[in-house]
Specification:
The chain has two domains: 7-49 and 324-423, Aspartate Aminotransferase, domain 1; 80-319, 3-Layer(aba) Sandwich (Aspartate Aminotransferase, domain 2), CATH 3.40.640.10. 38% of the residues lie in helices and 13% in strands. The chain contains 14 helices and 13 strands. Helix 10 links the parallel strand 6 and strand 7. The protein starts with 6 loop residues before the first helix and ends with a helix.
Length: 425
Amino acid sequence: MNYSSDLEYAKQLDQEDPLRSFREKFHIPKQANGDSCIYLCGNSLGLQPKQTKEALEQELTDWKNYGVEGHFHAKNPWMPYHEFLTEAMAKVVGAKPSEVVVMNTLTVNLHLMMVSFYRPQGKRNKIVIEADAFPSDKYAVESQIRFHGLDPAECMVELKARAGEVCLQEEDIQAQIEALGDELALVLLGNTNYYTGQYYDMKKISAWGHAQGALVGFDCAHGAGNYPLELHDSACDFAVWCTYKYLNAGPGSLGGVFVHERHATATLPRFEGWWGHKKETRFKMRDAFEPIPGVEAWQLSNPPILSMAAIWSSLKIFEEAGMQRLREKAIKLTGYLEFLVNKIGDAHMQIITPKNPEHRGCQLSIQVKNADKTLYENISARGVIADWREPDVIRVAPVPLYNSFQDAHSFARILEEEIKRMSHG
């Protein structure tokens, strides 16, 4: 696409944007002077939907008025509350409703999934993970390996980029999986890398892992709400994600879990709790555990309603917007921002996120070559909310639900001005 760096062009793109009205559904943080910040940090914490406050107040009112009877008589009864979120969440991640549940938080869910899907036997004990995976994922993997009495130094295989490169090559992922062969127990990748923004083809990776007799899972924290994941069609065994990034559910909100339907009635090792028990007999209290068919069997405790109210509030916006339309805007908006940043042409920075839109979501990772955080601090002082990831990356994410083309233009202008000021400084 032929972009222009002219401000009027950005205004025209906003005027033509069929999703432009969705920006008004969110609270945009303000600077001290009252101007809106340029918020490009939805990859870390999504903005608050304006309707979330009303959703929370509804549950607080019902708690006040009904007490425990709110489980049955609240406007949105609490007993089946998690089910209200299921269909909308399944659409976001491309799964069947029976394959998706909202519960716990991300790393908790990752551990629960590894209890079931990391089952080392003999020499089949290796887990493949990215060398630059999010640290919590690596901590979880290492601790699971140790839990089985094994050594992470021997059993955790890290995928590393080629010399002089930052992103992984698909053929290198395939080659490593095939090289491990019958020693491979689990492939566990972040489907969109938190640092580089690189998106991995889950369908291909699942096929490569399964061909070696291994199980395959993904951490979709940076993919859910960002990229149409099509989890069911990918054929991966499981996936986990959070809801506070692109899904705008608030800090530390609950996570989501996908378990492919082929495991719905399988006999798997699993940590169990009462909310995974068959609903019809759950409250008889004396029965032996009888799992709900499907992913709901992995639930442990009754759900925190206030957190779920915030998630449901955001999911309603996703239902209205639709993942396909959001993806179409994300490609255009991210491409425009990429064009503007590259046009600056400064030797001290480069975008390390893949150029191919099919290999990324809406995040762009800008590598500052001298690893100096000053540039990030200077743009922050001018109302840009992005984030810095050690050792040398500024992450920016133009989120299609609430970011505009003018946001991208304003960010690029500030970035260019601050680079020039530092160069002459």
